[in-house]
Amino acid sequence: MNSITIIVFTLFVCATVAQEYTKKYDNVNIETILSNDRVITNYINCLLGKGACTKEGRELKKLLPDAIQTDCSKCTQEQKRNSRKVITFIRSRRPQDWAKLIAKYDPEGLFNKRSSFL
Questions:
Q1: Angstrom distance (rounded) from CA 90 to CA 73
Q2: Which of 23, 42, 43, 108 pairs with 11 at a CA distance of 20 to 30 A?
Q3: pLDDT in tens, 51-86
Q4: Three-state DSSP class for 56?
Q5: Domains present along the chain, CATH in parentheses
Q6: How far apart, in whole angstroms, are the C-alpha atoms of residue 60 and residue 62?
Q7: Most distant CA atoms of the chain, gap in Å
Q8: Cβ distance 67 to 11 under 8 Å?
Q9: Does position 50 have pLDDT exceeding 90, yes or no?
């Protein structure tokens, strides 16, 4: 499949600045988020337009298309690390949600073909 979702969960951590997304969420414990099914479900529903979004979810939803288009070029190293964790988690443990996210955000699979940061 692709490599988008942690860009998703990492970018929920981001707001655009000049050359990088904001670092204000870089210290978030991503494992804590991944271990909470309710929280992950809420973020996925937000990204799919099927549920309410938190402030962070709205930021992520706004920034995800740019991150996919630019191969996460504005992501910090920590955001890239967290993105890898989230993508791996969703691909392996929530493949149906992964497929829905890919269908919405990268239907042609271009990100997967270009992504070098993963």
A1: 22
A2: 108
A3: 999 998 998 899 888 888 888 889 889 988 998 899
A4: helix
A5: 5-114 (1.10.2080.10)
A6: 5
A7: 35
A8: yes
A9: yes
